[in-house]
Amino acid sequence: MLVLVLNAGSSSLKYSLRRFDPTQPGAGGVKIAKGIVEQIGESEVADHLQAFDIVSGELAEVLGGRTVDAVGHRVVHGGERFTGPALIDNEIIRAIEQLNELAPLHNPPGVQCLRAATRAWPKVPQVAVFDTSFHRTLPEPAWRYALPDELYRRYGIRRYGFHGTSVHYVGQRAAEMLGVPWEKFDGVIAHLGNGASVTAVKHGRSVDTSMGFTPLEGLVMGTRSGDVDPGVLVFLLRKGYDADKLDSLLNRDSGFKALAGHNDMRAITEAAAAGNEEAELALEIAAHRLARYIGGCHVACTGAQAVVLTGGIGENSAPFRARLLTKLGPLGISLDAAANEEATGMDEGLRISTPDSVIEVLVIPTDEERAIAEATLALVGLP
Ligand code: ADP
């Protein structure tokens, strides 16, 4: 059984092809091909349709005469409608397209790829897996903004949360590591990549998360600001900024890029270690805010059994993790420095807290593509 996963980002298209053993569908299958088309819109690849053509060309070579049995698509925003993976048909594609307005940077590429893939493989079942679905369990005090109800009813302005597929996946791995059933797992999960968010999980359900209406709220990210006083936006509007300028300021020209000049965490930690003050301050700002959110999520899940770190930074940056954990001392967390140095680019999870740490800290590699493939298979069923 061959499952293709397509992951359309704002300027990239990733794919991965997995073979599943029909007797062990939950075992994740074996990855037999993967690839990425990058710099879409900034290079000779003009848009995601062209990127899709490149990907389907590469796949045709890998597949020889075979066809894929199912396609799983990552879709960022599922709004309130999509509380779980959805089998694609035209009505579903239109419904996802209606959500483009909520995630103008992230959803349109996904929709383009959905259309292209259903045209290219009309007989193959296709499934959309949403970043927002895992957060469908957010309680109302966590998802409501203190704004007039009219804005929610008219525009759907509320907190949705993102990174759900990754959080669910590493959360389950964390529960396995702790030896507790998923339904009894309480923890704080920080997905730290170019986009970054923290989620509070109580009894295996999302109960709070740092991203909101869009993937812009919360932490300091690669090029996104995370939290700013909304009053700043009103001030800038009065200074002549328009929507596009604000959008690009907050999404593309802020975060580590604004604070340290670029968004490569390895280079930033190296610069800070070499005495660069800008880089040092950027790391302190990001770690300070992250620690504050982790403390908040610890409260939101009524006491975490574990803090879990994942994503490119969480999985690989020992210096950033050490900086963060020093700030988590008041939660009774203490760092095992040797284990922390060891935890880089692993296939398995690793504990980086000392045995007497009140809360365990785990580094667990995420695998969104595997999670999407498994969700796709679960919906499509085995032949
Ligand atoms: P995305 O959100 O785009 O999927 P990733 O999860 O790949 O992003 O994370 C990207 C981030 O991870 C970047 O900030 C990058 O600098 C950082 N990163 C990747 N590898 C390392 C490493 N070996 N050491 C430190 N940081 C790393």
TrEMBL record:
PROSITE patterns linked: ACETATE_KINASE_1
Site (Transition state stabilizer): H163, R224
Keyword annotations: ATP-binding, Cytoplasm, Kinase, Magnesium, Metal-binding, Nucleotide-binding, Transferase
List of residues binding ATP: K14, H191, L192, G193, N194, G195, D264, M265, R266, G312, I313, G314, E315, N316
Pfam families, per the entry: Acetate_kinase
InterPro entries the record matches: Ac/propionate_kinase, Aliphatic_acid_kin_short-chain, Aliphatic_acid_kinase_CS, ATPase_NBD
Catalytic residues identified in the record: D131 (proton donor/acceptor)
Co-factor: note: Mg(2+). Can also accept Mn(2+).
Catalytic activity: acetate + ATP = acetyl phosphate + ADP
Any one GO CC term of the record: cytoplasm
Record note on quaternary structure: Homodimer.
Protein name: Acetate kinase
Organism: Paeniglutamicibacter gangotriensis Lz1y
